[in-house]
Amino acid sequence: MSENNILKEGKLNLDINKETPKKESKGLDGLVIYGKYLDLISYTEMILKKYPKQERFALASFIKNKTYEGMEYIIYAYKIYDKNKKMEAFNMIDTKLKMLKVLIRISYKNKYISLQNYHAWSYKLAHIGNLLGGWINSCRKQ
After folding, report:
1. Helix/strand/coil for 12
2. Which residues does residue 11 pair with via DSSP β-bridges, in sequence order?
3. Domains in the chain, start-ordered, CATH in brackets?
4. DSSP state of 6
5. The pLDDT value given to residue 23
6. Please, are residues 82 and 74 in contact by the beta-carbon 8 Å criterion?
7. What is the pTM of this model?
8. Which of 30, 68, 90, 115 is in Cβ range 3.0-4.6 Å of 25 for a Cys bridge?
9. Each residue's pLDDT tens digit, 52-85
């Protein structure tokens, strides 16, 4: 028996400072890009509420659709095992991200969003793009 389990002075000495093994989150929730993309969706929903009425059914609706399509392709890429189909899904995600960048730039130029919103939104898209690049590289190595 180890020292940690030996009774000392009538008390069981347990080492509570030992790190407990972390639970590995399995499934889609364990995918970092999934969580970041959910954050992007909630941020997008919040910002789109500020758009003028005439743009809510045009540009804002288009941005929302592209955002949800991106999430759809993330889920698809996660579920696919065929390497070629997975790479196609990655390309579609990248296309959606690039299109969102263009739409956000248009929103800023038309003064629908502030400079601070533009920077925050662009940062989120860039971060997701970096995560996507890492995912692509890890799949290429397999």
Report:
1. strand
2. 8
3. 25-141 (1.20.1440.60)
4. S
5. 46
6. no
7. 0.78
8. 30
9. 999 888 999 999 999 999 999 999 999 999 999 9
